[in-house]
Amino acid sequence: MLLQGERVSIALPPRLLRNAVAIASAASMFLVGSVASASAAPSAASCSTPAPVTTLPTNPFGANVTIFNASESVSTINAALSAQSTSANQEFFFLPGTYGSASATPATATTSNTIDAQVASGSVVAGLGASPCDVVINGNLGIYNDSLAIRPSQLENLTINPIESGDPADTMTWSTSQEATWRRVNLTGNLLEAALPYTTGLCLNACAPFPGSGINGSGAVENGFEVADSNITGDVIDTNGQNTAGASGQDGNSDPYIQGSNIGGAQGFGSDTMFAGDTGSVPATNFGPAVGTKPAGSNVSVKNLPAVRESPFVYYKNGQFFVFDPSVQFDRRGYDWSLNNAGRSLPLSDFYLADASTDTATTINAALSNGKDVLLEPGAYSVSAPLSVSKANEVIFGLGEATVTAETNTPTIVVNNDAPGTILAGFQANGLGFNAITNTGPYAAEQIEIGTRPNATGWRFDPTSLSDVSTVSNSTTDELINQNYVLQNQAEIQSNNNSGSGYTTVNWPAESSSDYGIVVNGNNVTLEGIWLEHFKMTEATWNGNGGQVIFLENELPLTIPYSAEGVQPSFWKENSSFDGYPSLAVSPSVTSFTLTGMQSWSRFGSGCDCLVTSLITAPVKRNISINDIFSGQILGSASLSGGSTAVGPGFPDFSGSTLGGVLNLINTDGVSSYIPYNPAMSASFTATTSSGSATVTNVSSFTGITVGSVITAPDITFDTTVTAINTTANTLTLSAAPTGAGNVGEAMTASGPGYDSFVGTTNGTTTVTLTPGVPPFFEGLAVGSTVSAPDITGGQTVTGINTSAGTFTLSAPASGSNASEAIISNGPGYNPALAWIGTSAFPHSDLYGHGVTNRIIHFPSWGWDQHGWRTRTTVR
Length: 876
Known about the structure:
Layout: E1 7-11, E2 30-34, E3 65-68, H1 74-82, E4 90-94, E5 97-99, E6 115-116, E7 123-127, E8 135-140, E9 143-144, E10 153-162, E11 171-175, E12 181-187, E13 190-192, E14 199-202, E15 214-217, E16 226-228, E17 231-240, E18 257-259, E19 262-269, E20 273-276, E21 279-280, E22 299-302, E23 305-309, E24 313-317, E25 320-326, E26 328-332, E27 343-347, E28 351-354, H2 361-369, E29 373-376, E30 380-383, E31 387-389, E32 395-406, E33 413-415, E34 423-430, E35 446-450, E36 465-473, E37 477-481, E38 487-495, H3 507-510, E39 516-520, E40 526-533, E41 540-542, E42 547-555, E43 573-575, E44 578-579, E45 584-586, E46 593-602, E47 611-612, E48 616-617, E49 624-633, E50 639-640, E51 652-653, E52 660-662, E53 673-675, E54 682-690, E55 695-696, E56 711-712, E57 722-726, E58 731-734, E59 742-751, E60 756-763, E61 767-770, E62 786-788, E63 798-802, E64 807-810, E65 817-826, E66 856-857, E67 874-875
Parallel strand pairs: 3-4, 4-7, 5-8, 6-8, 7-10, 8-10, 9-11, 10-12, 11-13, 12-16, 12-17, 13-17, 16-18, 17-19, 18-20, 19-21, 20-22, 28-29, 29-32, 30-32, 31-33, 32-34, 33-35, 34-36, 35-37, 36-38, 37-39, 38-40, 39-41, 40-42, 41-45, 42-46, 45-48, 46-49, 47-52
Antiparallel strand pairs: 1-2, 14-15, 23-26, 24-25, 25-27, 43-44, 50-51, 52-53, 54-59, 55-58, 56-59, 57-58, 60-61, 60-65, 61-64, 62-65, 63-64, 66-67
């Protein structure tokens, strides 16, 4: 038994026990709640040498499943793994035993002495032991995907002693995106999340004033994956994606998610690297840009998993195959590989083994109605009616990334109200795709439907769960959750409109296709590790109370058609005052909801200059909490030009295929990220420089200049920023001295300020004193900014700044005196609708790869506590 934390077992009430469960070979069903504390993980999960199973059993799982035993040669196994057909989903099982030589090193490793094969797309490699320690792989089962492409691949239930040619010792590479999940993996070494080695090449992001600037980057760009219920004895290693002055960060893996696991440590700088319910050397939350002396950070850590129900898995014991179905756990930390009182072991005789070449919706539904669980053998299933679950606690479990596709305008799967506690795992539930020539609908109303009536059923101690259940379709709503207490862990929920396939300004609004991603009507629903992408309207709509979301990746629709350059399409507006659609809309009636960790990308590949008024809309209430989010652009291009979209001389013109973006992160908070930069977001002025001096004098206008603004002029080094302002003395202090001998009346530009929050003291006059030591140290506060506070309510603007004295002046006095008062500023004053938010209109410190990206500062966590927010936000 391998168990990190203590847990409490709760016997299931008899009314919910399934009559069909065979008790002879299976443990009674238990539900498990975990206490918050957990011991540190043993360094190698206390594994002993496994006893090998030398007799190869009869394979009951069909032609697309391969079973290895330790008596087979390593060369034979590697050949089978490497020969996997791209046209078929496959599962590779390793019986208990040791595979490969532990004495090999990266220098001596070959395909004859170690396991050495990439885990192919559309395949699962898993151990057949009751514990991950029962199967030991000496070698490499990695991925070098090196792209944003989604890769449905999985490692499960085994130990890997990493020996990989070309990598450092004790290190294995898993360089891939999204659906490539680890479950119950014991890695006795380091996990490299982005491919090595680094190469020197052209600047992949806008990092210098002229094209062709060289950087040291790996060239690998991935968009995250999930590690669950695993033990990594070494470090989780990403590249360093942080930009520095004049240099782009290395490309790497942007959004890894590690859940309910143990790690030896973490290295690198991603974007939103998230840890939830993990033990070991877990980095503390440091998410956000550099502020004052605080360095930038990309880590988000949640101490406990509020609720989790791990995915089922197959194991082999005493000559029989079983499927272990874990129970729900609460407040868990660390991995849990115990089978004792942790769920139920189901003999294979409980299952109907479906074959993609012969089975239909009719045969599978007949098995379900007769009380059978269903095991989907690897393959592509085409169904003319939904798979319908009508009995409680039934299991539909896929092997080898099985796909089930509705061939008509019906859902792929429906879990009825009478079926709480349903377990769905390990398959894709897909639907029809839009094509202007071959398929213009109609489409299903929903592709996945969990409960047919809102709030009718659902139980906290036996929730319906979806693990590794993804869906791609053009249904009106891809996934509808009506049951209460549903748990969903790891999914790619995606529209089928990625390529456009003939969308026009006429058929885009006319077709009810891919309108909504996920709609949650149930209460106490928990989503963990979700990638939600490309829907035409609102991507996630939340109508239930008690919802929890931990790690949500999002991309806006790719190919919105438009009629004119630079004009928002009239049909892509939620209403007359809201451009585009929110990615997450929390209903005004909701009273409790928590989101931690969200990354949203604008990637309008069609060239549409589309804007989104707010990424998230939510009521401002005490028990609604939104934490650690960003929004930005990917896959654009940067070039120097003096075109109409250029910020100013020497600034890049972001005129690639990606345009538009998000104007506000939450409601109308003013935190924006969009391309191209508008000249109105920058300040123009003249000033005098002196040789060797970082002080700029005779500043003609301070309107729109903030601490952190990037200053551009012929003799000012690129990425030089403002560090101090004194409007009385007409001076600016820069982060670096100009390079020339000095210029009088030199033309300059400065990136504009935006939204900011801070703490200060008013005294009934026009002078406000900032509280020392409280960020953000005048960042985002500029002459012309509109200021509001409990006693600053008249629309006053900033007329002067003295950073040395820690003061600024208002256009009219405050109405009272108040110490440590929360104050908000919005700017630039001359164009608040296009406010550029942050310390720089040019990325320079929190860029994590992925093409064109903007760095934005948001208010610190204390700024909105009184309103219910606890938000640490950066925009990339």
